Description:
It is built from five helices and five strands. The chain is of the alpha/beta class. It has one domain (3-137): YqgF/RNase H-like domain (Nucleotidyltransferase, domain 5, 2-Layer Sandwich), CATH 3.30.420.140.
Amino acid sequence: xxxxxxxxxxxxxxxxxxxxxxxxxxxxxxxxxxxxxxxxxxxxxxxxxxxxxxxxxxxxxxxxxxxxxxxxxxxxxxxxxxxxxxxxxxxxxxxxxxxxxxxxxxxxxxxxxxxxxxxxxxxxxxxxxxxxxxxxxx
Length: 138
């Protein structure tokens, strides 16, 4: 078995989370600039066995897709060309940034650490991946 990797895709930066090799638990990995995401993944995939990638689906309460979805779809096309054997899944990311902010505030981090957008992106990716794993178990 290999890892599952999740991406909380944003215009400026992306949060990354991964599972363990047994695909039991999600952990935050890193936050990378969107411009360097593909090169980050090439390096990571060369060192780790990743079976599947989960990319957040940015929808609002009414089910309308966010404007960043166009960028995400372009990224997925590039990704599939570069990694044709890795499965790509989409997963609703509604409320993950709010949940991430809440969890970070409860963790005892100081105000400056809590407002660090990169940390929020990484925790958001972790929430997306953990929710994906829980749904997969059902």
